[in-house]
Amino acid sequence: MKFSRTYSLREIASILDVPYVGDDNFPVEGMNEIHVVESGDIVFVDHPKYYNKALESAATIVLINKEVDCPEGKALLISKDPFTDFNRLSSHFKPFRATNVNISPTASVGEGSIIQPNVFIGNHVKIGSNCIIHPNVSIYDHCVIGNNVIIHAGTVLGSDGFYFQKRPHGFDKLNSVGRVVIEDHVEIGAGCTIDKGVTGDTTIGWGTKIDNQVQIAHDTIIGKKCLIASQVGIAGCNVIEDEVTIWGQVGIKSDVTIGKGVEIYAQSGVGMDLEPGKTYFGSPAVEAREKFREMALVRSLPKLLEKIKK
Amino acid sequence: MKFSRTYSLREIASILDVPYVGDDNFPVEGMNEIHVVESGDIVFVDHPKYYNKALESAATIVLINKEVDCPEGKALLISKDPFTDFNRLSSHFKPFRATNVNISPTASVGEGSIIQPNVFIGNHVKIGSNCIIHPNVSIYDHCVIGNNVIIHAGTVLGSDGFYFQKRPHGFDKLNSVGRVVIEDHVEIGAGCTIDKGVTGDTTIGWGTKIDNQVQIAHDTIIGKKCLIASQVGIAGCNVIEDEVTIWGQVGIKSDVTIGKGVEIYAQSGVGMDLEPGKTYFGSPAVEAREKFREMALVRSLPKLLEKIKK
Amino acid sequence: MKFSRTYSLREIASILDVPYVGDDNFPVEGMNEIHVVESGDIVFVDHPKYYNKALESAATIVLINKEVDCPEGKALLISKDPFTDFNRLSSHFKPFRATNVNISPTASVGEGSIIQPNVFIGNHVKIGSNCIIHPNVSIYDHCVIGNNVIIHAGTVLGSDGFYFQKRPHGFDKLNSVGRVVIEDHVEIGAGCTIDKGVTGDTTIGWGTKIDNQVQIAHDTIIGKKCLIASQVGIAGCNVIEDEVTIWGQVGIKSDVTIGKGVEIYAQSGVGMDLEPGKTYFGSPAVEAREKFREMALVRSLPKLLEKIKK
């Protein structure tokens, strides 16, 4: 998430009422979760195990719970509770606003687009031209939809990421303030759910077609011309490259990359990166021919064991 | 389900127009399905195989299709079709009422709660304070939601339990007249479905966090501070104890208990009780390390068999 | 899809502006996808591999990209791009029409049926008597619902089939212009999605009961008195015969027939026809007892291998 203008380190520190290390006027352009930080961003870290990762990330301002040595060209915000202060900051810059009407007055809808009854379009949503948004679709604030996009009934775009931190008193939620970005010529089936990025974007690439009841979690990036069949679940922070085909009921865990042109057979469970151009099957998924060989072997076991006995 | 006042056995018998065994003024406080009966309840039974279970249950009034010996301190309602008469009784006391507006005039919403557009809130629903109910959520009659609860778009609370009896002419449905009860600080993702109890409650405990497209069936009780990932399906009459973690696309059959602190890996299928504090994997699920050992063994089979051949 | 009246071959050719082979007045009654063609129908074919299938199908008019020999009693429409021209034709006869109100003025709802708030009922939809349509249900144009049907909240009936053809520039969609037909006494849970037929019908038979979050794809026909548990996914063009029971999270691929009375255990993956009256389990599904035997064998492997070593 980028701010609407550049803030000074002093301004940010005063919003949070915390001490800081760095020049008063050190520039702060935005804030992001560690996966998607850029120069000018604030990142937060509250566990010594991850201090180095945060301090060495692209982020130039680190919201941290210990006054460590400040890396060259960076600044620190010293907080007793970086997680909570990060939330306070995102709520300050992007507060949740209730909407009283089906289509927010700050949303825009392009020429030739059809919005069917009972669709909710939140604040600052942008919808391109020649789209069809079918009934009972919900589009949360700040989502961006391209041209010639079709979204079927009951689908939800931009719900909060499932991102919780275990604390002694229970789970604390990291606010979701990112977006869902749908590129041109995408079609999304009925009853799908696509979460917004926690601070960045969840993206569906040009010409990708998604069947019904597909779940796509926060910050996942799906390439162009992919085909995703019904009831597939894709966890957060994944990269699905172009022209990937995923058959029904497949599950993909978080933080993996699925190479270009990969095909994943139905009901597979993917727990690691998959190499471009290959075909996978099984839970956990391996190359399909390997899985088929294993299955054939298991089926032949009774006879094999019979033989061995003799 | 408890009645709004105590009825006499004679009153109930006259609603159903059936004979009875017991004192005219024998007190009747409510009616419940066999899993959740208490003293003062009516229970029904229509198969000799289950007579004893019903007669020995906590229920003090038994709606039964044979005039059996009445246990001490209990009463009988003699019916040709206890299943249908039980439905007639629940329809009498808790009839389905259409609602003409998005938010029923008999629903209550606490201070600071935000109800987004296109939300349906049925009759007698109670929502606490500081909740956010996102667009296109449907909350059926009589559901109860605590404070600081977030429910994402398109989610359905309180749909009927999937409870049918096979009869010669087809499936007969047992009316669902229970509730969904959501405790404080729960968050429920988008596109979830949580059925009401058939006569009792389906409960989601304090601080539990549920991801998108999760299905929870009738009468299941979920403990405090559980984490349930996307596309999990939990069948009816289950007990999920506190601090259980269930990863994506897991399925859990009905009538099992998942012990405190259990972790279930993605795509597992659970068919039996799981012991507290352990980690499970596979379909059917077993202890994860056992499953991993089995998987490693199967993968090593080709080489092993090669060796044996030699 | 049948047209509202009989057209002449010349009329159809002039709509598409293409040459034709056959009598000017050759009768054209409708248009259908190859799976469901009848006499009087137009079928399209654009790959030489499938020419014979199309020419020998029940369809009497073939929209084709080469002037082949015209079979006796049939006619040809010669098109440079049969796929696109088929879409142009279906859009001509059944254009998508936006609806400005929740319940289209051309929809009909029978006596005693209850339509809850926020339900969308599209153009020309027919709903029988004594139905309950719960909140936030979306019913697309032309769907047909019988009597005594219950549809739970958030369910979508009649979304487009997931039917795309890969072309050099990306995926082209075959327009969905068929219907969903729900027979009497069916109950459908919350959050289900049932796609319309591409040109024909997706049908749910008399008395069938469907749990929450079930996905049924285009042109699938489900028999009478089936029981389908939660989160089942059934692909397109399937035939599920009467009295089939499918447990939770099962997936069924397209173009298979599930015989009468079959039972499929939870989380199975079905990739082929299943024989009537049998019980199946596993992914891929085989007869349950066979699967149980295989599972027992795999579990006993460590001990067996130990023995062999000795």
Summarize, please.
The structure is a homotrimer of 310-residue chains. Chain A has 310 residues and is of the alpha/beta class.
What this model shows, in words?
3 copies of one chain form a homotrimer. By secondary structure, chain A is an alpha/beta fold. The first copy, chain A, folds into 2 domains: 2-93, MurE/MurF, N-terminal domain (Udp-n-acetylmuramoylalanyl-d-glutamate--2,6- Diaminopimelate Ligase, Chain: A, domain 1, 3-Layer(aba) Sandwich), CATH 3.40.1390; 108-289, UDP N-Acetylglucosamine Acyltransferase, domain 1. Chain A contains 4 helices and 34 strands. Chain A has helices spanning 9-16, 48-55, 82-93, 288-309, and strands at 2-8, 20-21, 27-31, 41-45, 61-64, 75-78, 108-109, 114-115, 120-121, 126-127, 132-133, 138-139, 144-145, 150-151, 156-159, 164-167, 170-173, 179-182, 187-188, 193-195, 201-204, 209-210, 215-216, 221-222, 227-228, 233-234, 239-240, 245-246, 251-252, 257-258, 263-264, 269-270, 279-281, 286-287. In chain A, the strands form 5 sheets. In chain A, strands 8-11-14-19-22-25-28-31-33-34 form a 10-stranded mixed sheet, with helices on one face. An 8-stranded parallel sheet of chain A has the order 7-10-13-18-21-24-27-30, with no helix packed on it. An 8-stranded parallel sheet of chain A has the order 9-12-15-20-23-26-29-32, with no helix packed on it. The longest helix of chain A has 22 residues, at 288-309. The radius of gyration of chain A is 23 Å and the shape is globular. The mean pLDDT of chain A is 97. The interface between A and B is large, with 46 and 40 residues.
